[in-house]
Amino acid sequence: MTRPLKVALLGCGTVGTAVLRLLDEQAADLTARIGRPVEVAGVAVRRPDRHPDVPAHLLTTDAHGLVTRPDVDLVVEVIGGIEPVRSLMLAAFEAGKSVVSANKALLADDGGELHAAAAKAGVDLYYEAAVAGAIPLLRPLRESLAGDQLRRVVGIVNGTTNYILSRMAETGHGFTEALAEATELGYAEADPTADVDGFDAAAKAAILASLAFHTSVTASDVYREGISAVTSTDVARAAEIDCTVKLLAICERVGRVGDGAAGDGDGDGDSVAVRVHPAMIPTAHPLAAVGGAFNAVFVEAEAAGQLMFYGQGAGGEPTASAVLGDLVAVARNRVAGTAGPGVTTYAGLPARPIAETPTRYHVSLDVADKPGVLATVAQEFARHGVSIATVRQDGHGDAATLVIVTHSAPDAALSATVAALREMPAVRGVTSILRVEGLS
Amino acid sequence: MTRPLKVALLGCGTVGTAVLRLLDEQAADLTARIGRPVEVAGVAVRRPDRHPDVPAHLLTTDAHGLVTRPDVDLVVEVIGGIEPVRSLMLAAFEAGKSVVSANKALLADDGGELHAAAAKAGVDLYYEAAVAGAIPLLRPLRESLAGDQLRRVVGIVNGTTNYILSRMAETGHGFTEALAEATELGYAEADPTADVDGFDAAAKAAILASLAFHTSVTASDVYREGISAVTSTDVARAAEIDCTVKLLAICERVGRVGDGAAGDGDGDGDSVAVRVHPAMIPTAHPLAAVGGAFNAVFVEAEAAGQLMFYGQGAGGEPTASAVLGDLVAVARNRVAGTAGPGVTTYAGLPARPIAETPTRYHVSLDVADKPGVLATVAQEFARHGVSIATVRQDGHGDAATLVIVTHSAPDAALSATVAALREMPAVRGVTSILRVEGLS
Predict the structure, then answer these.
(1) In chain A, N or C terminus with fewer CB closer than 10 Å?
(2) Domain map (residue ranges) of chain B
(3) CB atoms within 10 A of CB A15
(4) Using a CB cutoff of 8 Å and minimum separation of 24, what contacts does A283-291 make?
(5) What pLDDT, on the 0 to 100 scale, is given for residue A1?
(6) CA-nearest residue of chain A to B284?
(7) Measured between CB atoms, does A146 come within 8 Å of chain B?
């Protein structure tokens, strides 16, 4: 047994604390699995006085000094955010250290530059914990499915919004009440913007799409709609058509514009469409049953077919499990004197704008209940090239409700249709619009 | 770009044919992902005349000559069975070739020896395709969860039996009729023994337990019961208590005898209990919804919590996807001049016999409908130290049905209880006995 591998821990919040505890409790197992003991070299925090449980000699405010210390082998980053983490990571790579991170925002924005820096230094950059917490997902995409062609990755990757939408369905409450409950129970942060507006899910979608399609996707390539506009009417309408409302992160490889189908085989002219928005999905869909704070990701590959990964998407312990799994991997590589496979972005696929991305809509309208209204409405869809899959008309008094589910059409055509419907004299109101996913 | 990596393919049935096709179709992608092109060096088959679609110059009957050819870098084995594959693999390792295999029977029996030989030669042995087809499962266990402590792995890992049990539930048919249907549709082989008697699932359970608990488990350590004794009454009784019957592969790390709880923290005195048998599980359990030929595996880890992996467990294309994922991994390692992490068996946990393994039973009895019968029956359970969780009594005429679900108790105590019940004068017949899993 040679000298221990030394780990620098950056950040010591919920996840960092769990990492420290597990490193201690499982020291014997980790040593056996890695082939050398792992030892904490230091813990970089902003306010050392707030961490009475961490041995004082390990605490430092000098994160840069810690990551570049000659005796440090590996860096675990659980601070989050862009800076100073980006600079710290680059400094770590330059100093020859491998990095394990849980930082979705940074990886989504600067993954390309960071991977290049790690590859240049011959070290590892692993970040399983950045997407869907404890669920082994990035390693399967990077490695297990590396011999396959991925078509779609569709996931529930944000527990806060999933909890809120689950509660709206259970209680009939609106978004505001459900958010207040989530905040009270600690499922939503004081400033819930990153979760409810879909920023968190969009960063994860960018990471998933990059790995799934061997291309470079950043958060700015991701179309993003949060759940704050989802109403109790939307949720009720979903139930009426045997659907449930979920915030989905959808990464698709799509063929040429106008084709609509997935990649056409040779891949020439393919693009990636990556989007985060609420959608109705059939209650029979495996993702529909994913409740509360759980995460699940559905993958469609050409040869493997349909796969699903399910588990806890957040929390100190589950996230720490993912961090430690990566830590064992980079430590084994260090012991073997090598680095794991990097990511490849050779496909260089362009991002397709949402306007050109094929989607399906559910539209509920209040209309005057008189002959010819359905024909007029149907004509408006046809005029925009949107084909209707199903329509249901419920009369009540002199009014009627039309519930329409479309076939797949470019998103721009669907939103133009809805805009035109709003202007029609026969339409008294558009009461619910949501995209629909997972219908066959 | 240096010279191509050369692959020897052993076997060319459904999976081998799919591997060849995907290697050809995805050549450009594989080259980009690996960093070097991959080329088929030869295909070893028994009867070359039966493979008109494979270029004749690649076909050979000399498998040993092929795997030891100096220009061969990697070996893909999809023959199956123990010999000659075992000898061929050992020859490949000795000649410095990495091996990708889909061979559950061989890995379950001789995994220890084969891993040791691969490690000695400094080459890789990967076999994701051996368990649950396309579902990324072994790599997550070996790597993603390497920083965690696994408690249980419970899976539906045999599609044939799952199809048969699903059909029994849907149609009310007995085992024999459902098997006949499965055979006719090609879901069961002409000789279905390996599937219906649980041998296939037991081999997979041995592999899963070995990786999950870092110990050595072989197929002979696995308690095994097939589904041929499952009756339509069992299936109907399951439905009555909101359960469904599944053939489960269950791998548990358990504490000291008499403890019954999972590992007690320090792991001293822990053992592994690995078993394959039909069981009732609640319809609300995630595994209950896994129908037809699909596979799913549920994992419980100390920090990660509950995880589930779902997908296609068999078939040429899905299995080939798993094989190619491994092929990319070993090829990347070869390009990097290294080998991936081997498996560790340092835990050296003993296998706990089924008699001592805590389980729960469902028991349905036909009894005489007179006062005191329930008390007498309950006394028999108590006499064997078995605690009853729920009991339901349905009278009809002078007879009654007792449906009893027990709490957890050593399996031997439960089977002794059932044997004693059969001898009781008040018990006219034991109409259904099945273990129950997944109740809280």
Answers:
(1) C
(2) 5-133+317-335, 138-312, 357-436
(3) 26
(4) A283/A242, A283/A243, A283/A244, A284/A242, A285/A438, A286/B289, A286/B310, A287/A154, A287/A155, A287/A156, A287/A246, A287/A248, A287/A438, A288/A243, A288/A244, A288/A246, A289/B286, A289/B289, A290/A156, A290/A162, A290/A246, A291/A162, A291/A166
(5) 53
(6) A289
(7) yes
* Contact yes or no for B4/B36 (Cβ under 8 A): yes
pLDDT tens column, A300-322:
999 999 999 999 988 899 999 99
Q: Where are the beta strands (DSSP E) in B81-122?
A: 98-101
Residues in CB range of B83: below 8 A, 6 or more apart: none
The set of catalytic residues of A is 204
Contact criterion met (CB below 8 Å) for B310 and B136:
no
Q: How many residues does chain A have?
A: 440
The fold of B5-133+317-335 is Rossmann fold (3.40.50)
Report the candidate in B437, B278, B279, B434 with the shortest Cα–Cα distance to residue B363.
B434
B147 in A contact zone (CB under 8 Å): yes
Write down the residue that tokens 């296939």 correspond to: B200
| The residue count for chain B | 440
Question: What are the DSSP E strand ranges found in B70-204?
Answer: 74-77, 98-101, 125-126, 150-156
Alpha-helix residue ranges (DSSP H) falling in A12-103: 14-25, 27-34, 63-67, 85-94
Interface probe for B, chosen from A74, A124, A143 (most Cβ of B below 10 Å), is A143
- Peptide bond before residue A425 is cis, with ω within 30 degrees of 0: no
Read off the pLDDT of residues A224-273 as tens digits, 9 standing for 90 and up.
999 999 999 999 999 999 999 999 999 999 885 444 444 444 556 899 99
- Reply yes or no: is the peptide bond before residue B84 cis, omega within 30 of 0: yes
Name which of A325-339, B257-271, B345-359, B373-387 the model is least confident about. Answer: B257-271
DSSP-assigned beta bridge partners for residue B394? B401
Domain A5-133+317-336 class, CATH top level? alpha beta
Q: Is B232 exposed, middle or buried (0-12, 13-18, 19+ CB in 10 A)?
A: middle
Question: Does ipTM surpass 0.90 in this model?
Answer: yes
Query: pLDDT value at position A262?
Result: 45
- Chain B residue closest in CA terms to A149: B26
Q: What are the chain B neighbours of A322 within 8 Å (beta carbons)?
A: 144, 304
Q: How far is it, in rounded angstroms, from Cα B257 to Cα A263?
A: 56
Measure CB to CB from residue A144 to each of B33, B128, B307 and give the nearest one: B128
**Domain B357-436 homologous superfamily, CATH:** ACT domain (3.30.70.260)
CA pair distance A169, A166, nearest whole angstrom: 5
Task: Indicate whether A435 pLDDT > 50.
Answer: yes
Q: Do domains A138-312 and A358-436 have the same CATH topology?
A: no
In CATH, B138-312 is 3.30.360.10: yes
Residues 292-321 of A with CB under 8 A from B: 301-312, 315, 317-318, 320-321
Architecture of domain A358-436: 2-Layer Sandwich (3.30)
Closest CA to A166 of A310, A34, A321, A292: A292
How many other CB atoms sit within 10 Å of the CB of residue A94? 14
Which pLDDT belongs to residue A439?
A: 81
Model confidence at B275: pLDDT above 90:
yes
One-letter amino acid of B326: D
Distance in angstroms (rounded) separating the CA atoms of residues A148 and A205: 20
- How far is it, in rounded angstroms, from Cα A306 to Cα B293? 13
Residues of B whose CB is below 8 A from A308:
308-311
